[in-house]
Structure formats: structure tokens, C-alpha cells
Amino acid sequence: MTSSALPDVPTQLFIGGSWRDATGGATFAVENPADGSTLVEVANGTVEDGKAAIDAAVAAQPDWAKVPPRDRGEILRSAFETVVDRADELATIMTLEMGKPLSESQAEITYGAEFLRWFSEEAVRVSGRYSVAPNGATRLLTLKQPVGPCLMITPWNFPLAMGTRKIAPAIAAGCTMVVKPAGLTPLTMLWLAKVLEESGVPEGVLNVVTTRSTGEVMEPIIRDPRLRKLTFTGSTEVGRSLVEQSAEGLLRVSMELGGNAPFLVFADADVDAAVEGAMLAKMRNIGEACTAANRFIVHADVAEEFSSKLAEKMGALKIGPGLEDDVKVGPLVEEKQRDKVAELVDDAVEKGATVVTGGQVPDGPGWFYPPTVLTDVPLSAKVSTEEIFGPVAPIFTFTDDDDAIRMANDTEYGLVAYAFTTDYARAVKVYEGLETGMVGMNQGIVSNPAAPFGGVKASGFGREGGAEGIEEYLETKYVGLGGL
Ligand code: NAP
């Protein structure tokens, strides 16, 4: 059964430049989280299909590495323009499979397409070095070459951007790839693959395998001795097991994992600006973002003003199916995710937290959860250590700056932190003291294709975007020039 609202989108595997069914013809259903209906059936790739995809990527690698950088850049530029031109169509697909409102899908498309443009420009900026050896006897030359065939595994929360952040630098660098999108949201990636094919990506350079037998199909690819790199965005738990698997081939590995972002509001902060920042840091993507503010750590002097203003704004957001007008809060991606968010709120309330707004699962179909603000949250509540991945803002208080930084760092994660203060010296102390890969100072969003995105600690390693992003797909070769 295919939903009539769903624009045309490929549903087959894309391997070696051909669209084909899974071996054996199996499919799986992609559902609309707003009502639980089936949108469409998609090919359920098998181990054989995974093998065919890595075979195709390996076969295409030598010729692809020789394609001039400008030509690779032009393919990305063309894809960027198509994605922007057809943004409305893609936004509908994304909202239907993932649940977020159309405005959020449009924002992701703007962000995700920008990686195609950014790396179209970076493709022609790869260079090496030349120097005289310290003893003057030889010359030292370094050059950059593509890492080789890559496996890219992406999550459901930003089904376009988490793909383009990997695919675009790999294309720019001259790597071939096998891409495995999340089972809950494969349609956006299949749509993008078609656009990249039409933009001139040669056969075998990009291969997309959708599957619900994920571990079974991915592990042989990871253990294939011809694979050179694994790049993964997803949960820390899965990331850990993939790092273990990648040890066998000593792969180049990038891990963009979970977060538990602190959002610090100091006594001297502009509270209205902090509330605006909090709305972005919490409500972007309905809170289903690795960068979502997970713990609001607010100075006691401004906690009351901050929480009441935040609750007023969060409580006013319209909830509903993402395709409806003015909706700001769509359903969460699946029932399990909605239940997890509800359980975290119930746990905090049982331990003494106060619900200022939200806190109740609404009646009716779809996996909705209302924007929720909790105050008086004890540190023993699970929300202080677990990634929420939903529209819930737990507020903790502090009175001493050093305590605030300690609380912020008291987590296994280290992806991003946000801090609001108008004091310059305090700002420097705070951003230097936070154990995260990224800090938003007086701003509630850090994601930017021109900046290096990534974490430390259990949030992973490697950087995506910025000048660093393409380096993840390049090896440095040193040539010693002797006989002078
Ligand atoms: P997930 O369960 O770890 O899944 C991510 C991807 O890994 C999916 O494609 C999934 O496939 C695949 N996968 C699952 N088990 C696997 C296995 N055994 N072998 C190989 N692949 C496997 O994470 P998620 O729930 O989709 O995404 C949410 C998580 O991603 C959150 O923790 C969030 O913080 C994190 N995230 C991090 C960043 C960042 O840049 N740091 C950005 C966005 C999201 P299936 O869908 O088929 O299970």
C-alpha cells in the first residue's frame, strides 16, 4: 500500500548504478509516525546485497579517484541545486517518514544541502606540502589521496543531513561508498541517491542498501578486507560495537554518537536571549537531536524567570501531524521513542520534579508527546544522565560557577554545550572548561556546514563539516625525494 500524499520516491536498492530489488524480493514497511499507517514498502537488503554493494564500491574506486576534482565538485554543485529546487517535494517525504513538521524538514534540507555546496568547493582545495629536510639532503613531499571504499551508517533523526555530511566529503575526496540509512527513514536517502545519480555520480561510486537485518548485513561489510573506512552516526551503544568490529580491518573510523548537552544560564545572562536560545536548542527537530539541550543548568537568581518564560513558549507550540499548517511539534519517530520520553518524565516526577507544562501523553493515534518543562529536578532523576531525545526540558539550579561547570561535565557524553552569559571573562572560563567538542556561546544552535561538528568522550571522535570534514576521507602520503 502506498500513501497518496507520498511523492514519487525510489524503493529499491541502488547498487553498481542500477536500481534493483533485494535478493529474494523481501521488503519492509516504512510507516508514518503521525498515524501508524504504512507509507510504502522498501527493499529489505540481504547479506548478498551488502556483498554486491561493497563489490561495486571496490570496483569503482580506482577510476573514481582519477576523476578531476573540479568534475567531482561540479557533481556536488549540481546535486545541491536540485535538492534546493525540489525542497518542497523532499520536505513532504521527510515529514511523512520521520514525523517532524514541514518547517523543520525545510530547515534540515537547507542545512543538509549546504554540505553538498560546501564540499563542492572543498573538492578543489585538497593540497600537499613540500619542504627541505632539516639536513638539506632530501626533499619532503606530502600528497593527499582518497582513503578508499567507505561504509556510511546514518540515523533517522536527520535523514538527509547526516547522509550529506558524509557523502559530500567522500565524493569530493574521491572515495566510493556504501550507504545504509536508518530503517525508520530510508526514503530521504533513496531520493537523494536518485538525485546524485542524475547529477552524474558514476556507477558504483554511491551504493545504497536498505535493510532491517541491519547487523547481519553490515558486519560482513565492516569485516571485508577491502573496506577502508567506517563512518557512523547513531547511538553510543551501537557505535561501541561497530568500533570493535572495525578493529579487525584497522579501519579509519569516524563516530558521531549520542549527546547529553548541558545548557548553562548564568546570573548575568540576558534571560530573554537565553529563552530564545533554549527554544532552538531544545525544540529543533522536536528534541530528537544529538545536539538537543538535555539538562538546563540555571543560576538560582534567574531560574524562576527562565523556567516560566520557557514554559510559556514551549506550552504555546501547536502539536499535530507535521504536514498540517502551523504545526511546530510533530509526533516522535516511533512508539518506543515516545514511551522512553514518557518514562523519563514519570521517573523525574516520582523523584520530586514539578511539571510546569506538558507531561502527559495525549489521546489519539500517532506517537505524540507534548513540550514539557520540569523544575526542581533532582540529580538522581534519569534525565540527568540519559539522552532524552524528545521535547522535555529538565531544569536544575546552581549558585556557584565552578559547580555549574562540574555539573555540565558530569556525564559520559561530550558532544555540545550551550552557555549564556554577558560577562566576557566568565565566558572564556566556561568554554575552556567544558568537556565537549562544540560550545554554543549565547546561541542555541551550533550546526554549521562550515564548522567542524563532532564530540569527545562517549560522543565519539572525528569531525564532519568545515575544512576538517574532507580530511576524514583523505590519507596523507609522504614521498622522500632523494638522489639529489
Ligand atoms: P542507532 O539505533 O544507533 O541507529 C543508527 C544507525 O545504525 C541506523 O542506520 C541503524 O540501522 C544502524 N544500526 C543499528 N544497529 C546496528 C548494528 N548492529 N550494526 C550496524 N548498524 C546498526 O541510532 P538512532 O536511534 O537511529 O539515532 C539516534 C542516535 O543517534 C542518538 O543517540 C543521537 O544522539 C545519535 N546522533 C548523533 C549525531 C552526532 O552527530 N553525534 C547526530 C545525529 C544522531 P536500523 O535503523 O536498521 O536499526
What does this structure look like?
- Pfam families: Aldedh.
- The active site is at residue 256.
- With 484 residues, the chain is α/β, with parallel strands linked by helices.
- It has 2 domains: 13-257 and 459-479, Aldehyde Dehydrogenase, Chain A, domain 1, CATH 3.40.605; 261-449, Aldehyde Dehydrogenase, Chain A, domain 2 (3-Layer(aba) Sandwich).
- Helices cover 38% and strands 21% of the residues.
- It has 14 helices and 22 strands.
- Strands 14-15-16-13-12-18-19 form a 7-stranded mixed β-sheet, sandwiched between helices. Strands 9-8-7-10-11-21 form a 6-stranded mixed β-sheet, sandwiched between helices. Strands 5-6-22 form a 3-stranded antiparallel β-sheet, with no helix packed on it.
- The structure holds NADP nicotinamide-adenine-dinucleotide phosphate (NAP).
- NADP nicotinamide-adenine-dinucleotide phosphate binds at residues 153-158, 162, 180, 182-184, 212, 214-215, 218, 233-235, 238, 241-242, 256-259, 290, 387, 415, 455, 459.
Shape: globular
- Classify the helix fraction into a percent range: 25-40%
Reported for the largest beta sheet, the result is: 7 strands, mixed
Give the strand line-up of the largest sheet. Answer: 14-15-16-13-12-18-19
Question: Would you give the CATH topology of the largest domain?
Answer: Aldehyde Dehydrogenase, Chain A, domain 1
The protein's oligomeric status is single chain
- Intertermini distance: 72 Å
**How many extended strands?**
22
Task: Count up the helices.
Answer: 14
Helix- and strand-based class?
alpha/beta
Distinct small molecules bound, one entry per kind: NADP nicotinamide-adenine-dinucleotide phosphate
Give the CATH H-level superfamily of the largest domain.
Answer: Aldehyde Dehydrogenase, Chain A, domain 1
Radius of gyration: 23 Å
Please write the CATH class name of the largest domain: Alpha Beta
Domain Aldehyde dehydrogenase: 19-479
Protein name: Succinate-semialdehyde dehydrogenase
Pfam families: Aldedh
Family: Belongs to the aldehyde dehydrogenase family.
